[in-house]
Amino acid sequence: MNVFQPIGHVVFAFLAAVGRLAVFTGLALSHAVRPPFYFRIIGRHMLEIGYFSLPVVGMTAIFAGMVIALQSFTGFARFNAEGAIANVVALSITRELAPVLTGLMVSGRIGAAIAAEIGTMRVTEQVDALTTLSTNPFKYLVAPRLIAGLTMLPILVFVADIIGILGGYIVGVYQLGFNPANYLQNTYDFIETLDVVSGLVKAGVFGFIVTLMGCYHGYYSKGGAQGVGQATTNAVVSASILILLFNYILTGIFFAADV
Amino acid sequence: MSEPQIKIRMRDVHKRFGAKVVLDGFDLDVRAGESLVVIGGSGVGKSVMLKCILGILSPDSGSITVDGIEVAGAGSTEHEAVNAKIGMLFQGAALFDSMTVVENVAFSVTARHNVGRRAAREIALQKLAMVGLKPDVAERYPSELSGGMKKRAGLARAIAADPEILFFDEPTTGLDPLMGDIINDLIVHCVEETGATALTITHDMHSARKIADRIAMIYNGKIIWIGNVDEIDRAADPYLDQFIHGRTEGPIKMAVRR
């Protein structure tokens, strides 16, 4: 019977963690939609997540676009379909690469920062101090970050779409010798609204995941510097895994809707 | 003579973490306008007691009332209303390090009262002057302050919204004896000035004697002795006697080995 004891422990611990996350998410969402709203703080986080992530996201997108153009040329040249490169770049950037890579980069940049900041506030009793000052930590710390993540990621991904396609254009025109006008015309003719919209929906979900994981792990961190370090790691790892998981789930939903 | 009015009443409060029982049938009355100091060793539940009143932790059972309003098991809205009467000085001051000192104090004012940004700043500067911090310190960030200055700023934040009740969590811990005494004097001064009810937890007997009207000793999750500060040396309680004289031998067994 001792075999079942450790298994039971793991199962209960897992269920407890899932339940705690569900309660946390519910509380955070309920506070995000009820007044009072801290507009200045929401604005500050929007600036941090949206504007200051632009260089990182831009670099990621341009190289991703360039690589896709080169790699698909290698593949498509084998059956004389080089003309489809513009389409492949546009499709893979808008549907997949821009949202996923942006989500992962932002989870490293923002998710880690959120977990470290809220975690430090937790272990130095600043979160408790908020409570004593009649300010709900969910409303003041969690909700503004969730709102900023949910709204800023789609904008970031839209920018990444444009820069990624530009990267493909640069390689296509200057390295592979495509006609610039043809390349742009191909991109424009081929791309559909759903390609871009599905990527932007993914981006919103990823933004929510990144900020939620940062807040959750920061909020429940304990035990000083080591605990905060652990919370930061957990925030980035769990956000990255959830991004890839939800990327598959959402792609499946859009695939079913498409066919 | 009428009975003194009770500000905070705790009855049969139980709280445990896993197998560890922290509060075990805890009773305490804090009278309006008095300064009560709760003493006790490390890890006996002093902080848990404060956190249960504030709603940061919820007790497993029992009753806690503040001005007659039940807070044990209350929702966050009720707690916010009750906490609006309470100002707290944290052990590490717990100043928000993303804000300057004056913003920290003004935060407390705007969270409680419907005043404008500029008015809140004026009040904050007054309160900082009250604890002996000059306006040039006000514009600094908490990380640029010494321990004593942080405590002063934390005190200013605690009294900024003119609370009816003040909590002090180990006010002198981590300070040198001189700075500790300055903080003690400030606490006495602020409590007198505001007329607030004060509840302090500490293990510093010098500080307790200075701040307290009454002293209560907590041991094994219960109050084992409570009385006026001048009775403490005449009390025959062996636990209290051991604690205030800091002896290692006596009825209190420290859990050193685990």
Overview of the molecule:
The complex is a heterodimer of chains A (259) and B (258). Chain A is mostly helical and 259 residues long. Chain A is built from nine helices and no strands. Chain A has one domain (4-258). Helix content of chain A is 86%, strand content 0%. In chain A, helix 4 packs antiparallel against helix 6 (137-175), helix 4 packs parallel to helix 8 and helix 8 (193-219) runs antiparallel to helix 9. The longest helix of chain A has 39 residues, at 85-123. The model of chain A has no long low-confidence stretch (mean pLDDT 92). With 258 residues, chain B is α/β, with parallel strands linked by helices. Chain B has two domains: 1-85 and 166-171 and 196-258, P-loop containing nucleotide triphosphate hydrolases (Rossmann fold, 3-Layer(aba) Sandwich); 91-163, no CATH class. Helices cover 36% and strands 25% of the residues of chain B. Chain B has nine helices and ten strands. In chain B, the strands form two sheets. Chain B has a six-stranded mixed β-sheet, with helices on both faces. In chain B, strand 1 and strand 2 form a beta hairpin. In chain B, helix 3 (101-112) packs across helix 4 (117-130), helix 3 (101-112) runs parallel beside helix 6 (147-159) and helix 6 runs parallel beside helix 7 (177-194). Chain B starts with 5 loop residues before the first strand and ends in a 13-residue tail after the last helix. Chain A binds chain B through residues 117, 120-121, 124-126, 128-129, 131-136, and chain B through 51, 54-56, 76, 79-80, 83-84, 86-88, 90-92, 94-98, 107-108, 111-112, 157, 161, 167.
